[in-house]
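Sanity check

After download, print the first record. It should look like this:
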Amino acid sequence: MPRILVVEDDPASHEFLCKFLKREGHDVLSAMDGGQALEQAAQADMMLLDVMLPVMSGLEVAEAIRHDYPTMPILMLTALSTTDDEVKGLETGADDYITKPYDLRELKARIRALLRRSGLNNELSFGPLRIVPETREVYLSNKLLSLSKVEYDLLVTLAQYPGHVFSRERLLERIWGSDYYGMDRVVDVRMVALRKKLGEDGREPLFIETVRGLGYRFKFAN
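Expected structure tokens:
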């Protein structure tokens, strides 16, 4: 399931939201202020963002996210309910806006709509390769592959953005987390294992291409 970053500074609301999303089957990341939100953004697929935050406001966070992660869905949560407030939130980068207190059924529906619109829950197909995000399954020529969690996350991260070059540092942040202090060589080691399971040797890649000096990108070649 897509990883949702909950950015909410009220402890009770924060805990409630995280528990609700986990019950719905989502992977959940959390941040209590704007600075933490930006630190964790690389690991997230979607963000639930409160407007009134310490360190940086939700509007400032949304603007920064739009610059660095232009396709990330952002659902803004706020007690501010005037039309001007809503317009301001949408103009700074939010995709949708819901006011507190909100009905959980409505929140769930809006999250699903944003994920559907962004394509994060859709199956990905590239010739003989089929990726099913909902079940975290990968098929090659209709054969189910046995991928580790890291291998699956690497593949999906690249495949969701074909042609986009991910640096080793960005992949480390997203897959291993911002608090990982190991060597970026671990990305290359895991990529070799993934490519082997995809039937590639790296010299003539069908799916994953090494961009010398920059990183990796998904480039399906017929």
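If your output differs, re-run the checksum step. Summary of this record's structure: The chain has two domains: 3-118, 124-218.
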